[in-house]
Amino acid sequence: MIQGGCPIGTGSGGPGYCVKQEFNKKLHERGVLSMARAQPEDSAGSQFFVCVDEAAFLNEKYTGFGKVLKGMETVDKIVNANRDGRDRPFEPATIKSAKVTLKDAKPKAAAQ
Asked: In order of start, what are the domains of the chain with their CATH numbers?
């Protein structure tokens, strides 16, 4: 997997608050986007990860909330980059743009 969302860039920072976990049945398969957290279940904040392969051991223990629909080749480049002893790429990878598409979203009715 690759992980991002640390506001201080060390992999151990957060936004200053935590959100309650909403565990679900989303399978952690290739391309799934999920919330990262520390050991306590309700410790998620700003960090997230993208699975580069199946990770069934994470199912129902982490909150999967999306999936990469286009651009997995970029995820593969990041996971295959040369890394240091802490598993961080020597060359930082940053998200320049992302597009969120809501699947099965129903438009809100117009107010009358």
From this structure: 1-112 (2.40.100.10)
